[in-house]
Amino acid sequence: MRIISMNFEDYETLLFKRDGPVLTITLNRPEQLNAVDSLMHAELAHVFYDVASDIDSEIIILTGAGRAFSAGGDFKWFQTMIDQPLVWEKTRIEAKQIIFGLLDCEKPIIAKVNGHAMGLGATIALFCDIIFAANRSKIGDPHVNVGMVAGDGGAIIWPQLIGYARAKEYLFTGKPILATDAANIGLINYAIPPETLDTAVTTFVNELAKGAMQSIRYTKVSVNIGLKQLASSILDASLAFESLTNFSADHQEAVNAFLAKRIPKFTGK
Questions:
Q1: Helix axis angle, 38-52 to 85-104, nearest 10°
Q2: Of the candidates 101, 104, 135, 142, which has an alpha carbon nearest to the alpha carbon of residue 120?
Q3: pLDDT band at 5; cut points 50, 70, 90
Q4: Whole-model pTM?
């Protein structure tokens, strides 16, 4: 791997801040609740590889600008992926890169979930190594509520964190879980009052930075072997099923309903 200093100017939808060996990455579409569009998705597909080879950072914090961590996918982008299959194909490839970028990066990645984390936003947060969340925030994977398969990683990570029965309940219904409840069942590490979230994350990161970082990195690598094996065996299939539902009548109905601000009427097609 080539070790370099990151060029932050390569990114438009992500902000970066250094504090010694700690690099904070902020999802930066606050007016859209950091909903992921085509550009942000492309940037997320390679940022964790850039971070992995960044000589100036040892620990990564990932958070969102404004009042949300991420609302998931941008609905205008959804329509583009329905209308243009090649755009969806690009998205499918990037989806794998996002997950494996998170898993392959040897540096600890700390999620600071400052607000709601939904869909892809939840997936990204849950694939981080340690997860702090504001206690009033909600975490959910509502793919099924927009007529799609939870193919971009949710089907992998939720069962590993909370077991298959609970994971199926949340993935089948798309209902969100409050951060305090998520911490109680092991979906995340900590649910913190929002006014002390920054302090809690900073305290944890500063203590972690005093540790033997090479040992910490290699421990992450060791723990992630099982997750990478699961991702290798599941992700292609789940994304293939998501591809099928991307062009389904139910997904188009969900997009139409969202834009018209009405409840979708699904037909199972």
A1: 30
A2: 142
A3: confident
A4: 0.96
